[in-house]
Specification:
Largest sheet: 8 strands, mixed
Pfam families: ILV_EDD_C, ILVD_EDD_N
Strand content: 5-15%
Family: Belongs to the IlvD/Edd family.
Oligomer: single chain
EC number: 4.2.1.9
Protein name: L-arabinonate dehydratase
Number of helices: 22
Strand order of the largest sheet: 7-8-12-11-10-9-13-14
Keywords: 2Fe-2S, Amino-acid biosynthesis, Branched-chain amino acid biosynthesis, Iron, Iron-sulfur, Lyase, Metal-binding
Radius of gyration: 24 Å
Distance between the termini: 25 Å
């Protein structure tokens, strides 16, 4: 156990030098008495709240509950506003700024007099960003998930955010609903604070955080507006104080076994394909190596047990009432490393002793899975030498083995301009290809991967097609969408060489993605390929372009992902 003199903050406040005197004087300027903070763990509360992030609109209030817990446990909380990364509004994509929030998190924790941190997030990129930064900083840290919003409603239907947005927008394009229905849907799709209540990227990544062991047990499944969420926030604030005294750093929790269990859980949830990129990046910050091969190997032995949209029928609120993530984990214990430590101070096994499942349709028994294999498959072939992914549990089964002619779009603007052009001759058997949308080409790998189906096919009743891109897609999306094709077209990956009419084969059972063009013809095309001009000439975008890695490497900055230690600042 630490003593007050062992606290990191003691270097700022506890000595008898000029700078220590200055730091104490400025604390008095802030209105704090010595007995409020001296000799106590100073806890940074990193809050991603903002007026333009609906997923986090309640985190200003939750921060007060976190602080209440810190005070009650004998700590001293300090709230820090950090980048909000609103998936709903930030363009071209908050993925462009995930690493910026990770840098901000790391440097705030490194440069200020704090002993531990409470990380508050939930909207897609905030969870991995906060955990990446905290892992690099290495202090005691606990994550407070924002929680899913309540179910959506429209007339007599239950709506899932994201998933039903795509669905009903296509129905409007097909002419089956009109403006009146669409206006009603606008008011019923997202009804409360909280992130998407489908198994999109937000629910996937907060669940991953829980199984990694960096939240209190059960935290990820609690609806944002439930009173249990208030209590969880306060309990997290209290727990981080004890973690500081115990010297339980995030580094001691995030080991190789934790990341293996996170992959297992994401696959059993039928989770978002974005988790592949984020977990690879997060593991890298923990000094560990994950690859696409790890996901594919685990996927072949993990069943999908969570019957949640878009791959299933229910929503996160139902998942919570059915037993939440602890309930699901209780049915996977033979596939998990349950003897490892979590931020609760207990092992994963100990946190699951009271876990129960209350609805066997929402959380399926092992002998009645939603799917026999994990919901994400990793593909390789001459079109994706470094790999690609598909959420096959959310695709039309008949399309998982398919060969068809390519219809190629060079970027998203080209796609929007020409997707309904009759001269393209797009049929239900065509393979839609979008390039120029990867980490560099997007830029930031936007969620363009659920390419729109042409209007004339929607009118004919077509609701799914094979679509291939170097983009990502929302975890709330669905369909036979091959994503994260690596290397991306912008750096000369084979996607840059595809031409209209080329046959492409998708074979998910064989984990294959092939461009049916002879090697000599591809070599001829490559010789004529010209590298695109840089998108950014200055600023953060230029830094991003110079250092971003490819999708299969986690899209982290190379200078952040590499091994090495930054020195602690001199507080004198």
């Amino acid at each position: 156990m630490k003593t007050p003199e062992d606290l990191r903050s003691h270097r700022w406040f506890g000595g008898d030098e000029l700078r220590n005197f200055s730091h104490r004087a400025r604390a008095r300027q802030l209105g704090y008495e010595p007995e409020e903070h001296l000799g106590k763990p100073v806890i940074a509360v990193l809050n991603t709240w903002s007026d333009i992030n609906p997923c986090h609109m309640h985190l200003r209030e939750r921060a007060e509950q976190v602080k209440r817990g810190v005070w009650q446990a004998g700590g001293f909380p300090l709230e820090f506003p950090v980048a909000t990364l609103s998936e709903t509004y930030q363009k071209p994509t908050p993925m462009l700024y995930r690493n910026l929030l990770a840098m901000e998190t790391e440097e705030i924790l490194r440069s200020y007099p704090v002993d531990g941190a409470v990380l508050m997030g939930g909207c897609d990129k905030t969870t991995p960003a906060l955990l990446m930064g905290a892992a690099s900083a290495g202090l005691p840290a606990i994550f407070v998930p924002a929680g899913p919003m309540l179910r959506g409603h429209w007339r007599n239907e239950v709506l899932g955010s994201g998933t039903d947005m795509w669905k009903y927008w296509d129905e409007r394009r097909a002419g089956t609903i009109g403006d009146e229905e669409l206006s009603e849907l606008e008011r019923g799709l997202a009804r409360s604070p909280g992130h998407c209540m489908t198994m999109g990227t937000a629910s996937t990544m907060t669940s991953a955080a829980e199984v990694l062991g960096v939240t209190l047990p059960g935290a990820a499944s609690i609806p944002a507006v439930d009173s249990a969420h208030h209590r969880m926030a306060a309990a997290s604030g209290a727990r981080i104080v004890d973690m500081v005294w115990e010297d339980l750093t995030i580094t001691k929790v995030l080991d190789e076994r934790a990341y293996a269990d996170a992959i297992t859980t994401v696959l059993a949830l039928g989770g978002s394909t974005n988790a592949v990129i984020h977990l690879i990046a997060m593991a890298g910050r923990s000094g560990l190596s994950l690859s696409l091969a790890d996901f594919d190997e685990i996927a072949r032995r993990v069943p999908v047990l969570a019957n949640i949209r878009p791959g299933g029928a229910w929503l996160m609120e139902d998942f919570y009432y059915a037993g939440g993530l602890p309930g699901l984990l209780s049915r996977l214990t033979d596939l998990l490393h349950t003897d490892r430590l979590t931020v609760s101070g207990r092992t994963l096994a100990e946190t699951l002793t009271t876990a129960r499942v209350h609805n066997d349709d929402v959380i399926r028994p092992r002998d009645k899975p939603l799917a026999a294999e994990g919901g994400v498959a990793v593909l390789h072939g001459n079109l994706a030498p470094s790999g690609a992914v598909i959420k096959h549990i959310a695709a039309t089964p008949e399309l998982l083995t398919h060969t068809g002619p390519a219809v190629v779009f060079d970027d998203y603007a080209d796609l929007k301009k020409r997707i309904n052009d009759p001269s393209l001759g797009i049929t239900a058997g065509s393979v839609l290809v979008l390039r120029g949308s990867g980490p560099l080409g997007g830029p930031g790998m936007p969620e363009y991967g659920m390419l729109p189906i042409p209007d004339h096919l929607l009118a004919q009743g077509v609701r799914d097609m094979v679509r291939i891109s170097d983009a990502r897609m929302s975890g709330t999306s669905y369909g036979a969408c091959v994503l994260h094709v690596a290397p991306e077209s912008h750096v000369g990956g084979p996607l840059a060489l595809v031409r209209d009419g080329d046959l492409i084969t998708l074979d998910v059972p064989a984990r294959a993605l092939r461009l049916e063009v002879p090697d000599d013809e591809l070599a001829r095309r490559r010789a004529g390929w010209l590298e695109p001009a840089p998108r950014f000439e200055r600023g953060y975008g230029a830094l991003y372009a110079e250092h971003i890695t490819q999708a299969d490497e986690g899209c982290d900055f190379d200078f952040l992902a590499r091994a090495g230690v930054n020195p602690e600042p001199d507080a004198r």
